[in-house]
């Protein structure tokens, strides 16, 4: 057997536009976000351990990175705007293959206050939906350094399935790092989407904002 017959030979590139959610707003990343993001980034230098840029000692250093990120034609970036209107981090769609129907969500930086919140999970979910629903891609990728335990766990929580580890596949800050690969395919996407929608529903949180059902439970039910 040669494999699964491809449904098409070309997929549209993701459009960089604002995307509203229940808990946050995704807004195309711009230099206008630099100052509020700098305050958060400066307070959390360790949050850049697994990224190829940062931490930032000066505002101009962050502006220089944002000038690069915001002008990449092959990698659209979004700022995550919290309910109070302030940017709390950024993320991107990268490694888009318009001929193979695959894309990745990556280069994620969330301020500590955003991490683990419904807004953080919804930000990722909205980009998942953009690629898998709006553009009907066949394969969604999550890639991270294998030493990054939090990112590895996030992939599993979101419903990505492990594909293996490329040993010493990247050099970051002078260190050779193993790279772990995860994916969601078109066949498994509906169950993942249903679980995420159920988890993000306001009814899944108590009066103190604590989750009632874990995402893994909801995915098993779906």
UniProtKB/TrEMBL annotation:
Gene Ontology molecular function terms on file: protein N-terminal-serine acetyltransferase activity; protein-N-terminal-alanine acetyltransferase activity
InterPro entries, per database record: Acyl_CoA_acyltransferase (IPR016181), GNAT_dom (IPR000182), Ribosomal_N-acetyltransferase (IPR051908)
Residues that span the membrane, as ranges: none
Keyword annotations from UniProtKB, A to Z: Transferase
Residues covered by the N-acetyltransferase domain: 24-178
Protein name, UniProt field: RimJ/RimL family protein N-acetyltransferase
The species this protein was found in: Litoreibacter ponti
Lineage: Bacteria, Pseudomonadati, Pseudomonadota, Alphaproteobacteria, Rhodobacterales
